[in-house]
Amino acid sequence: MSSELRYTANTQLEHLHARYTGTGHADLTKWEWLTHQHRDTLSSIVGHPTLASYLAIADGESIGRVKFEMTERMLQPCGPPPAKDD
Amino acid sequence: MASPPGSPRLVDSFTAPKHVLQEFAEMAEEEDIDPFAETASKRQIAARQSDYHNRRFNRQANESADAFKAAEEGAEIEGGYKEAMRLQRLEREEERVRRAIEEKERKAREEGQEKMDLDKTPPREEIIEAVKEVAASSGTKRKRRWDVEEPSDEVKAEEKGGEWSKEALEEAVPKKRRSRWDATPADVGETPKRSRWDQAPAAQPEAPMAAIIMNAPGFMHEDKHNRYLTDEELDALLPTSGYAIVTPPPGYAPLVRPPKLSATPVTEISGFHIQESSDAAAVAAAQGLAPELPTEIPGVGSLAFFKAEDAQYFAKILKEEDETELSVDEMKERKIMRLLLKIKNGTPPVRKTALRQITDKAREFGAGPLFDKILPLLMERTLEDQERHLLVKVIDRVLYKLDDLVRPYVHKILVVIEPLLIDEDYYARVEGREIISNLSKAAGLAHMISTMRPDIDHADEYVRNTTARAFSVVASALGIPSLLPFLKAVCRSKKSWQARHTGIRIVQQIAIMMGCAVLPHLRNLVECIAHGLQDEQQKVRTMTALGLAALAEAAAPYGIESFDNVLKPLWVGIRLHRGKSLAAFLKAIGFILPLMDPEYVSYYIKEVTIILIREFQTSDEEMKKIVLKVVQQCAATEGVTPQYIKQDILPDFFKAFWVRRMALDRRNYRQVVETTVELAQKAGVAEIVGRIVNDLKDEAEPYRKMVMETITKVVASLGASDIDERLEVRLVDGIIYSFQEQTTEDQVMLDGFGTVVNALGIRVKPYLTQIVSTILWRLNNKSAKVRQQAADLTTRLAVVIKQCGEDQLLSKLGLVLFEQLGEEYPDTLGSIIAAEGAIANVVGMTQMNPPVKDLLPRMTPILRNRHEKVQEATINLIGRIADRGAEFVPAREWMRICFELLDLLKAHKKGIRRAAVNSFGYIAKSLGPQDVLQVLLTNLRVQERQSRVCSTVAIAIVAETCGPFTCIPAILNEYRTAELNVRTGCLKALTFVFEYVGPQSAYYADSVVTMLEDALTDRDLVHRQTASVIVKHLALGVAGLGCEDSMLHLMNLVWPNCFETSPHVIGAVMEAIEAMRVTLGPGVLLSYILQGLFHPARKVREVYWRIYNSLYLGAADSLVPFYPDLGELSEGQNVYDRHPLQMFI
After folding, report:
1. What is the DSSP letter of B80?
2. What is the ipTM of this complex?
3. Which of A5, A24, A40 has the CB atom closest to B1108's CB atom?
4. Which residues, 6+ apart, have CB-to-CB distance to B39 below 8 Å?
5. Could you report the per-residue pLDDT of B94-153, keeping only the tens digit for each?
6. Quick check: B1078 and B1041 in contact, CB under 8 A?
7. Residue B1120 is nearest to which of A2, A4, A44, comparing CB atoms?
């Protein structure tokens, strides 16, 4: 990439990360990426009533309970971050 | 004013007075006149700005110690807050002493004068003094400021000693050295260390900032006539015996006095011009520089320009040096200077790289060396806007990197940046705010407060003003709550009224700058300043009222409850105050009124109205404006009844403000019109128009204009249904009269006429014959302006004339206008054509008189006219005819117009290009696309890029109006031409075609695939770029229309281009991929992306993550089902299965 573009693209990228969680970069770890995926999945379930009621029936729980549990699980859905080995 | 009509003119022609002519002749004889000198001085900021702005050169900057660092290291650092406060006290003391001395001198002089009165001739110095004073008072008068300190004005007049004035003479004679105590030293540069008599020497480890500023060449404002004599000169003048050099008294050091407040920069060093004996040149010469200015500097390369003043700052890098002998610090210094010179004087690419280098290495260079070089440059008197902008940018970037390392330099930076906050230029103000906000984020609130606190009660109003503004920026950067405790303390300061004044001004500035963002803190801010309304200092009371006004304006329409406490003092205050403070109180009331509940507001308005009506009579302009504004605000509130306005306000209002005098000053004029319009909203059209309509026949033209403008605005906003028959007669009569009587053809009269006639609509029918005959008569006037205005009026009236059913009048006008098409003034011609177009619009092509078949051939040659207005009017008329009545004109004529139109496709004005392109569409529709298309495709072969681009747009328009099937085959065929330009043109045309036709593209997607294959695999970058744009439009057009197979094919061809690096190409490719997301769905795209997200090569990962991010932003939610199942990667605590998705019933 030309230096100019690299410069502007990078600044924009920083901006992007600040504004939208879930966006990634070349040094993202497996755990970070998957955590985002899980959170997206959970919020998708909470956000789509049909999906939430499907899970409620499958689980035998009320829809509210399902939504609550999904929301709760968003905190570290893939467990704590793995220790860095460097 | 004007000589009575009929009286002969006194002179036939005017010519310049003789002495003026002679002056020019003399000037022409002098050879070394720089014709650019004047413009150069205008580019210089200092030369352009007022005395007040230039007071910035008087400021002293001191080091602000980093208290945090000191605490960390446990070391005592000199120059902290205590030091600053001490310095500031000394400065005040100095100021006081100086004033006392001047007072004493003045008294002495007055006494002397009394003695001298017995003499016949006053002494020479007195005459010169008097002359100077007269010149000063009659010369450019400074704008009076709200709270400028009065004594300083006197001081100023006093300080201007002439060349032979007593002071100057005293200074020139060495024996009387003692009197130098309060004089400016001859050459400040000679004192190596600006060791002030009262300053701790430890505070300046290296050459201090102020000394550098003093060294600025522009600073040496004394010309050679009244500078001090040097020792050598004195030796030559005086006998060797009988004289001794007296040693100065112990402890004496020349007081560094700021340059005279009023002294406009005497040095007018222009951009490229070297003054023979200028100090800058002398300095440069002393350092062994050639007198001519270099454009090539060793280690810097070529520069865009180099000024004489630059030589001073960059002397060290101008000559070749042996770098091996330099120490590390010296090398660093040279490096910084080179970079700065590149940034300041370099060409854009040079500048850009230098800026990046200086940013990257900022921490390495360190704050000290950087700012020691940057800040003096910013204080240079000959600084120009562009240079200032660039240097400020450097500071901004460097600040970002240095972070808390800047702490010791905060005050120095503030001294340089604060003046930007009161600059006339909006962008300079924004830049200044940006820097101070970044600075406060870097240095922290505590440090900012301790640095700026001493300036809050500075003796100089200028310093306090800028400090207040800077504080408001700090407040907006760090949040109002964090600054509130400090503000409260300052606003209640017992020590000096200046501190209270500044504190309140800070609040005012916060309100002005932050707008409605003050709302959460409104109560606190109001409480902070409320007590100032009863302050013993009048200036504080005034400022408090202004602050409240700003707060109320910012909070509108909320927050009245926060102002509860100040209502009583304000309303009591308007009975107690007079003059400026009354004006400020009224202003505050005016802004608070709109916040109030309608039930209560009428009471408060009644209270204030008495004062307002009293002040209607005022002769103070400022007061007049504020009174008008408050009346306007009162009238706009809900609680005031029309009855009240009609009875209590209107009679006095019209008596005081609807007088001829008000029309003469532009600001008054506008304010009166606005207020009257606001009153009309309550009182009604008839009431207001009825009162002023007779003045349409007033003999003063500016006054008539004011009346006309008011009527226009009132009628435009409220309509004319309120106007009864009698008033209607008077109104139309008055308008026709004032329209005919105007001497300067004005937009106001035209607008007024158009608005009123359109508002009256069909009621205007009885007057139409008279109006049209006026127009016809004026269309034949000998003045081009009058003709133009008549034509413009026709444009505005055409619709109404048609409504009234006066078709024969229209056709008469049409014919007359047609005859006028030979008009030679382009502005007038444009108006005439526009009028003809307006008539054609309302009458229709069939009834048009002159018939369209005559009109159009007449327009063809006019198309060649280069004037924009003519072009636009013509192209609009032609487009209209092509749209509605193309069949009345033979095809050959249309083809001729097509050729002419091609030229218009490259017009500068967008409106013309668009109209031309649209006309192409209409013409193609009526003629059939073949011929037009042929013209356009041939046009793709021409050299000029602009017309090729326009042709491609026109092709697309033809495709849109005549159906893509008419064009796409022709374009595909043309694409086979071997010529690069043509092929690019074809691709470009297709991009526009697919952009315009949208979903219709589904029918053509398969037919263009092979061509796109070819283009996307071409070696030429531009081909691939343009093809990607086509793919983008195509993909967006066919989304959801079942073309996924061909789109997937194109996707495979586009995808490898994602590694392109050219900005335009990569942009186009990314957009094409984005469009594919819409057509193919995010899932397909994700499967492409997954290949490279964790690729071993970083370059690949970077690109893939970028695409992933844009995909994620576009379709985060719909990606959920497509994420790969990565459960097998689970290890230990980290389980990656997405269990909820694995459930099923």
Report:
1. S
2. 0.91
3. A24
4. none
5. 878 888 888 888 888 877 665 555 545 545 655 566 556 555 555 444 444 444 444 444
6. no
7. A44
